[in-house]
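Two proteins, back to back. First:
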Amino acid sequence: MAAWDHLVDLCRLPHRGSTTRLEAEAARRLADRLRETGADVRVEPFSAPRDTLYRGPALVTIAAGLACTLAWSHPWWGLAVQIVFLAILVGELLGSLAVDFDLILPRSPSQNVVAVWPGDPSLERSPLVLMAHYDTQKASWLFHPRLVPWLPAIFGLAYAALGGATAALGAHALSPAAGWPAPVARVCAVVLLVFAALLAWGGWRGVDVPGANDNGSGVALALALAERWRDDPPSARPLWVVLTGAEEVGERGAKAFLRHHAAALDPRETLIVNLDNIGGGQLRFLTGEGLLRYYPYDTHLLSAARVLSMHRAPDRVGPWRNLVLPTDALPLAARGFRVITFVGIGRGGAIPNYHWPTDTLGRVDRHLLAFAEEFLWEYLRVVVNPPRAEARAGGPRSSAR
């Protein structure tokens, strides 16, 4: 089946919201479809918050705002609370497996779907992993098409207020007579509490989006490419298809995959191709990602993408440095895995219909999806069959390590 046919089938569900009943139903259907290809398929359960984009930052900013007001008479306690919640936020943004919003948010069941084609059993080879998340996000005021270009500024203001509040509390604790910390703390507290209220309202009023582009498109491409691999394997490498749940709540599916399989996978040899939002705009490959710390992607995977795009479609494929919000590749790149992400970028650098109710099947660019399927199939053939000199050298090392 072509990627479009897989996408049509997946979009029969109204949405696939993280940790919802419909996410679980989507996992069941995807597992059945992969079993039909003859793969060894496992559904791997884990737990994840229902929402980290709204509730997590809202709790952190509420705690910071209250620490600047109610705890002002006890600055050391206020500073301690501030540092604890700030550490949780930093861990979340860095893709930590130990310190993130799971420490302060309730969790519900989710699951990954992992399909394996073993390759040549006589060769011990690390797999090629095709990864795509199948869950969907909520639409709220935060992702109104007119506000999306301002997302970095909105979150940047909130993070600046967090930093200012921490500095004011620290200065007040060390020097109670200083005059500047009080007005700075008041301004930061107002910004943080307003931001928290807007986030809470967005999480409460938000609606689950259909998710045809984000990320039905990536899942459909992964399924179509897996079928091609089954029919005409270009390498003796094993192929893994990893369809993750709960990506929209802080890459929880990718983190669960790491907890389950990192010990069995060699980060130096495993190749991971992440597919996300390839249903609109132009095909781009990220060169890395990360907000607080930027993790460059693997040099071999990037070089192959650059060379192939230059020869195959220089006007339709190209590099892109970073996204506002992370993908499933973040926790993998942070741990030195050889990874790359392909994504569709529209006008002004925005992902089309991003986290908005218009993310429907009718808005997906069918021609882009067909082109991406052909390009990515050729790309997979290139990355698993590197030039002979490179193969004799053992392959290049990732720039993320």
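And the second protein:
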Amino acid sequence: MKFILFLLVSLLTSPEFLQAQMNILYGDKLSSELKSVSAEYSIKAMTGAVVFPDGSIWTDAHGTYGVTSENELHADLLYEVGSNTKTMVAALILLLEEEGKLSIDDKIGDYLPSINNVNENITIKQLLNMSSGVFNFSDHPTYATKINGDIAKFWTVPETLDEFVLEQNFEPGESWGYSNTNYLLLGLIIEAVSDETPAHELIADKLLRPLDLYDSFLAEFDDKSDYTKEKVGTWVIFDSEWNTMYLDIDIVSMMSTAW
């Protein structure tokens, strides 16, 4: 009996067992920090997740969401993600380079037709690292007014580029400036070198599905029937100063211009 007890204690305190319990070991501390940050910054609701080195996962949520009614926030909801998706687009470009379909040193004029106020000598790399000088379409003085004027309007990428892209801020490679337009152009390049396969399908096939991310979709582009979970609302830009408000409805105009 003493031997069995010793064996059991040894197993429970072994590094392998402790590592397998990382989500349990750190879960209470992480949940406490989540609530603490929420209270410190007066955040209505927060959710978080951590994937530990052993593969165990911690998730928690705190607060409520909704405008017309208050709902308890939880991790098993659809959340909107904004510019984090630039990482996915960049990864897809690099995968296509590995496949020999492009080089990040290529000029965008090799793949795209002439676009007003976009220098065709910009390289793909300059789009990726924000040194292209291309005007940020969402900084256009009429952007908020026009997308809020008809929230149900679906904007195509060419429409967005034509309507909201002003003259270059600087010559390619001469400076650095954050521009959402860069990633619209990268999306067009992705489709151009992939026999016009829609970018959202390529993101799913080459990035999301291989990683078992079956609850991630490109809003307003993927089939709505894929949305099987309840969606948390949308933060909407309502003026040129980037003041925002929270709504429980899809703003098709904003989502489509952002691709």
